[in-house]
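Reading is simple: the token line describes the chain's fold. The lines below illustrate.

. . .
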Amino acid sequence: MSRFNLAIVGGGLVGASLALALQAGAKARGWKIVLIEPFAPGDTYQPSYDARSSALSFGARQIYERLGLWQQISRRAEPILQIQVSDKGRFGAARLSSMQEGVPALGYVVENAWLGQCLWQGLDKDVISWRVPAEVKHMQALPEGYRLTLSDETQLDCDLAVLADGGRSSLREQLGIGVRTTPYDQSALIANITPGEAHCGQAFERFTDEGPMALLPLPENRCALVWTRKPEEIKRLMALDDRSFLAELQGVFGYRLGALKQVGVRHTYPLSLIEAEEQVRAHLVVLGNAAHSLHPIAGQGFNLSLRDAASLAEALLASDANPGDLATLQVYRDRQRMDQKLTVGFSDQVTRLFGSQQPVITAGRNIGLLGLDLLPSAKSWFARQAMGLGTRADV
């Protein structure tokens, strides 16, 4: 029976980031860490027009800089130099600028495949071992940890199990951890777009009565589209041919980047705010989308999970206790409680405010956007939220 100090269930972006945040301290302590992941990482990065992407906040850059990874990640990270926030059919608009905020970029857009490749290559094999491809089928609580049974029927024991296996975590359900689910009655359509003009590092948040839309800059002058609408509308948009889809998108987005020229493969998924009712138990942590899944339009989901991972690593390495010690895990939970509350609240309220069609609210948000553009202190606060710097004093 193999025994590890930590078993990270899910070797995706959040799980791999946690392993990286831990590995230097783990090596000094002689800890053994295992990553269990159903999909084997590729040996090389393969560029793709249709690659899925993540928006990294400036705060995320700071975390990866501390881990010594940012120089490599930045090779294919497209800086967001300006964010334009607008409300379709109304005068209200706001513009956030990295120059005004005194930072090199408000955030960055990175293809998930590239980010994953950078993270996996940064792992120290002397400290972090992989079980790939493998899934955890069963978890049994022991007095001093958990016993994990894998898909090939092998077993391993660990002092601390970290569930980073996504928003539909079957293990979370197996362990009796409930979730609070708030449906938005919206689905998201995501795709890559080629505009007719250079995006010049501009990101666009466009709010309409039918739902919000974001267009984020990518390398090779592509843009990542996130378009949220009612599920029946998303189904209709998915059925359109490329030319008809681009025409409809153009009508909503306008000609801020000229005529839209190309759309890649379209994907869609339903949207809900999902929060786990427990995030720590003795010898157990729930992390990433398994802990909280946010609406994508504010771009805060992965960034919050990354801050959680960095904070968890900090708490574990600051303690002399066993990694599964409940008091240590509660230190982490208490430290991140306010960050999570503010970030989830910010994302949820932005979604609801700009998703409403009530005349009083639409008039109020129009005035609010105008005020935001005119008041430097309000604009700076909003920018810090977007950059992932508004909820923690130490990042």
